[in-house]
Each structure stands twice: as C-alpha cells, then as structure tokens.
Amino acid sequence: MNLDIKFKSIAVRWFMEVFLIVAVVITVTAVAFSVIFNSLYTERLQTLADDYSYEFATLSSYNAETFEDAAVGISEDFIYKNKIEVQVIDKKGNVIVSTSGFQPSDENISDYGKAVLSPSGTAVFKGKNSDGENILSRTTVIKSENGDMLGAYRWVTSFEATQRKVTGFVIAVFVVCIGILGFCALSGLFFIKSIVRPVRDVSNMARKIAMGDFDTRIEIEKEDEIGELCDTINYMASELSQAETIKNDFISSVSHELRTPLTAIRGWGETAKMSIGTDGELVEKGLDVVLNEADRLSNLVEELLDFSRMQSGRLTFNTVPIDICELLGTAVNMYTELARQQGIELTYTPPAETSTVLGDADRLKQVFINIIDNAVKYTEKGGLVLIVQTKEESCVRIQIKDTGVGIPAQDIDRVKEKFFKSNKTVRGSGIGLAVADEIIKHHQGLLFIESTEGVGTTVTIVLPEYEEPLEEFEDETKEVNPDEIDIKEQ
Questions:
Q1: Which of 23, 125, 343, 362 counts the most CB atoms within 10 A of its CB?
Q2: pLDDT tens digits, residue range 310-350?
C-alpha cells in the first residue's frame, strides 16, 4: 500500500472541504450583511419620510366636507417639497393634490389598496414608477375621529441614491470576501502539510485500538491539538478497556439475575407437577413461586427495555397533572408486606396537604418502586426504611431513608452510572438508578444520593409543583373589535 499517495489524496480532499465550508460561510455572511445594510438604509429612508410628512396625519381631525380643502392647504404650505412628494388620496383612490404641483397620471398607487385592506392601515411600495425610476412610497389611511374613512396620504421618494450606496457596499463586501478566501487558500496549504504526518501516526495507533488492543498507547510529542488528540485517544482506550470490563460484569450479573428465577421456576414447576393430586398445598405454593419469579423476570426485562429506549432516545412520556401523594402511597403499599416479612419497618406518613406535579404517573411510579426496592433489599432485618414527603418553595421533596449497608465513599459518585453496582452480592442489573435519574431529569427534577457506609442511604427526589394556568385573559381577547385596533394603531 502506498501511504504517500493515499494521504496526499485525503489531504487534498480535506483541504477542499474546509475551503468550501469557509467560502459558503463567508458568502452567506456577505449576503446577510448586504441584506441588513439594505434594510437599514430603507428603514432610515422611511423614518425620514414619515417625519417629513407627519403634518399630513393631522387630516384625521377633519371631516368629509373639510378634508379636501385641508389637504390642499397643507400641501401648499409643505416645506419639504424638495425632499419628498406627498399625495393626498380620496377614499375612491383618486389623487386630490400632490406637493409636487403635478397631477400624477399613470402613477402606480397599488399600495393604496393594500393599505385599505391592511389591519394597520398602512402599506409600502418599493419598485419602479411609470418613468422607470426606483421609488419608495408609503400610503397611510386617514380616518376621522369617529372612525369614518376620509382617504389617505402617500409619500413618494426616490430610491436611486440609496440603491447606489447599497450597491457600493455590496461590492466592497465581496472584494473583502475574495481577499479572505485567497488568504485561507494559501494558509490552508501550509497547515495541511504540517498535520498530515502526525495524523498518519495517530491513525495507525487508532487502528490497533479498534482491533481490540486496548493496552496500546500513543506517545504524545506536541502540546497542541494533535497532542490533545493523542491524549484523547489514550483516554478512549482506557475507557474502552473499562467499558469491556463493565460489559462482562453486566453480562455476568444479568445472566445470574436470569438464571436464579429460571432455576426456581423450573424446580418448583417440576415439584408442583409431581404433586398434582397428592399435595394441593405444595402445588399452590409452587405456583405462587413460579408467578413471583415470572414477575421478577418481567420486571428485569422491562428495565432492560427502558434502558435501551433511554439510550436510543425513544423513552416515551405521557405527562398529565398527577397527585404525587397518592402515587407515592401506591408504591409504598407494594412493599409493605415484603418489608414486614423481612423484619424491616417501612414507614410513610402522607402529608396533610396534597401536591400536584406534571408528569408521567407510570414512569414516576417506576422511580419510586426502584428506590424503595433498593432501600428494602439493602436493609437488614430489624432495620428501618423511612419515607418523608414535604413541600417547599413550589417544589415537592421526597426522601427515602434507610439504615442499610450504605455505599462506600469511593462509589457514591458512580452509583447512577449505567451498569455500575457498588455491592455485587445483592441482586440487581445495575441500570435501575440510571433509568430513574433519566426519568427525573425529564420531569425537570433532581435526584441525589447521600450515603455513609454501614450507616445507611438517603435518596432525595425534588420535583417542581404544578400550578393551574390562569385563564383570566380569555374573555378579554374574545371581545376585541378589529376596527378599534386599527384606529388605535394610527
């Protein structure tokens, strides 16, 4: 294999892709600046024209009989005739008077019709007039104080000077862009040559890691981006090695979790089968064991499916307002009998005041069951599991405390990681807390764990309390009259 030819073609392709991206970005930026510059100049021109023609807005204080005479009087006294032309139009669309002193013949006043139909009572036209000159005009509808339409006034100004300034700016921007692209092309050639050889070495070492040699490491020679890349690949190799170990432990743990109930199901199934007709009590006991172990297997499979959905972003939620007290009470009741059988005191006193959160009842119940199950199974006989729910600052705080074995200090920051199990002697897949944490995050809440080895563990869940949306503005919005809005905007 000829590595020189191979890497030369990669370098050229990489350079072209980067250069094209830079060219596109610069072109888009130049076009954006040109559009913004044109918009600013146009807006400035409109603002000046509005200021010059402001006195024509006073025509709204006249009535239909005096409107035309008032328009003629204002036009004759207009002092900005050398800057803009203002036309006064009657409600039929005919020009009554123009400050230019000439009556327009074939002038395009399509903006008048648009202004009449517009809720704001205004319309802007930018284009060529009958003489082929670029103009900018704006028509504003005039209504009397009682809401009757009197006509409109329309200012017209030349857009030629602004067009020349915009064109000059666009040319200057594109000349600068061409200069930048030329500089990028020259500097890119030198830059590519300086990184292709180190990247080749990195690629060779990465190929070894991809083939499963996680013990290989890249020697870091530079403290630049290439050195950072080497350090990252070395870190990746360490993480892959650790992930391989965790994967093997997870497979072993799940295999054990599956094997134990399956063994019980098979053993008690055979026992119950042989006892049919001879020992009904033993058959019933065997069937209870089979059903319990089947539920355990079903829960494990569902937990694995939830984890798979979480990893692929397909974990679905059906959020509705729910009574968190009732939901938590249901989860506690599921473990009351189990805790009693194991000699554990499970205590939960519902708060006097109910609390509502916006969430998925099934998912939150899954979180409570997972945490209560952990508290019970890690607490020895004679221990205590205490569940406390309080309300504070628009939040609901739920604490599940136990007097169990606790978590070692070095593991406390990792217990919510996927597949991690601090205590490998107790049943569990190691993904329950990872799924629970993801569910709580989706509900805009927090889940944090405090623990002391040999003393116990406290899991705290904080969820935002749901407040009913205010509906006091609905009736007001229904009674608004569009005609009244137009008058106020003018």
A1: 125
A2: 666 777 788 899 999 999 988 898 888 888 888 999 998 88
